[in-house]
Amino acid sequence: MSDKKKKKLTPIQQQYQDFVQKREPKRPVIKNCIYAFLVGGTICLIGQAISAFYIHFFHFDEKSAGDPTVATLVFISVLMTGLGVYDHIAQKAGAGTIIPVTGFANAMASAAIEHRCEGYVLGVGGNMFKLAGSVIVFGVFSAFVIALVKVIVTKYLGGF
Amino acid sequence: MIQGRTWIFKNKPTIISSSAVGGPFEAQGPLAHDFDLLHGDLWIGQDSFEKAEKKLQEDACEQAIHKADLQKEDIQFFLSGDLMNQVISSSFTARTLGIPFLGIFGACSTSMEGLALGSLLIDGGYAKRVLAATSSHNAAAEKQYRYPTEYGSQKPPTAQWTVTGAGAVVIADEGTGLKVTAATIGRVIDMGISDPFNMGAAMAPAAVDTIQTHFRDLHLSASDYDLVVTGDLGRVGFQTANDLLEKQGLRFPKGRFYDCGLMIYNLDEQPVLSGGSGAGCSACVTFGHIFNRMRKGELRKILVVATGALLSPISYQQKESIPCIAHAVAIESEEGA
Hints:
The complex is a heterodimer. Chain A is an all-alpha fold. Chain A has a domain at 27-128. Chain A contains nine helices and no strands. In chain A, helix 4 runs parallel beside helix 7 (101-114). Chain B folds into two domains: 2-172, Stage V sporulation protein AD (Peroxisomal Thiolase, Chain A, domain 1), CATH 3.40.47; 178-336, 3-Layer(aba) Sandwich (Peroxisomal Thiolase, Chain A, domain 1). The longest helix of chain B is centred in the N-terminal third of the chain and has 19 residues, at 49-67. The relative contact order of chain B is 0.19. By secondary structure, chain B is of the alpha/beta class. Chain B has helices at residues 24-27, 49-67, 88-97, 110-123, 138-145, 199-217, 234-247, 260-263, 279-295, 313-317, and strands at residues 2-3, 6-8, 14-22, 37-38, 77-82, 101-103, 129-136, 161-162, 165-172, 178-184, 227-230, 257-259, 276-277, 301-309, 324-332. In chain B, strands 1, 2, 3, 4, 5, 6, 7, 9, 10, 11, 12, 14 and 15 form a 13-stranded mixed sheet that branches. A two-stranded parallel ribbon of chain B has the order 8-13. In chain B, helix 2 (49-67) crosses helix 3 (88-97) and helix 6 packs parallel to helix 7. Classes of the chains: A mainly alpha, B alpha/beta. The A-B interface holds A 1, 5, 8-10, 12-14, 16-17, 19-20, 23-28, 32, 81-82, 84, 86-87, 89-95, 97-98, 103, 106-107, 109-111, 113-115, 117, 130-131 and B 47-50, 143, 147-158, 190-195, 198, 201, 204-205, 235-236, 239-240, 243-244, 271, 319.
């Protein structure tokens, strides 16, 4: 908890928070990092293999192989979400399954499945971007800011 | 009669029947044989989790009425609550039952809120037979309070697992069964915890306050109950409550203080992190397992302290801390009455 938040607590509340903190099991950060590294790395390795597969058998070049590779990974992720496996892997893997494109696919698919019972329009359509929406909003916004920075640096400062 | 914050039921309302219904995950737990009905499928044959929860509660009510050898027309009031928005599981169950209905909300403390209020109606002579119930459903609760069930987020070790289950009791002014002797109504306590993945720690002070008040109001000592059981504090909350009570000088004899959230699952094998939670947790464990033990004569006098975290997903997003409550009900088996 941030210090700013702590300041609002009464002394008794503060005392209790310190009391209870001693009894809370800590998030196993190092273990989580190792799992995230291994699982995330494995997903990337699979992606690399798929990419090599497309280059070798379907004559894509290294740049254009990216699109079918992402599509394949997204498909696998959505399938695993539908089969109810993805969330179990994610409980162990943490950031390892959230960061790659598979995590984004899972966020959309899980929300779509969850709200299927409220109908296709208001349920699936309206809720599909419940979690993924913020990724898109801030993704687009940060891309915009980066683009501005790039333009300023290259045009007016002469670039590097 | 009231003594401090505690109601003492002079006429000792009788729990003439009780029932517990669970889901597939509860069936793998150590208390499986104490359930009246266990569903093998999380959907319970319905097309949404919300409808599944309603079905659970209907099943529990049906079982309780059936076990008491009554028809639903014999029940005068139905008190129920659950975790869903606008307590839909309970209202829809009441629609099915057609019994005069009072909807209640105490989050996970609803089981004892219902039992206490039901006993009050009976003891005051305002009803002859009351049905009190509550339910929770893991996936429905996840959907409402957290993320979609299939979303791959990592939960911290302090998080708890919402029980898929429902419990119901029929309380009557006469008959044989367990007797409700007293109830202490809780105050809302907020110790500034705002992490919804650490509700045990948020609820522990509420449980401690209610337990202390109950013992003070009735001038009891720690060894007066065969079992004092909290609702769903989980590992962290229970340890905290235990330490707080010891600090205040209430030290229970070994094995006489426990938590329903730690009993319902096999904590080492099932991935429930800190333990079970949800309105169904205290209901299933007490109305099923503990009442069965009392009927067998293993326990004579118990105190159930159901704890509830009164947050909503919106209050949490608006950075509010979690206000909590605990209601305690004392129950005795008949030979002790």
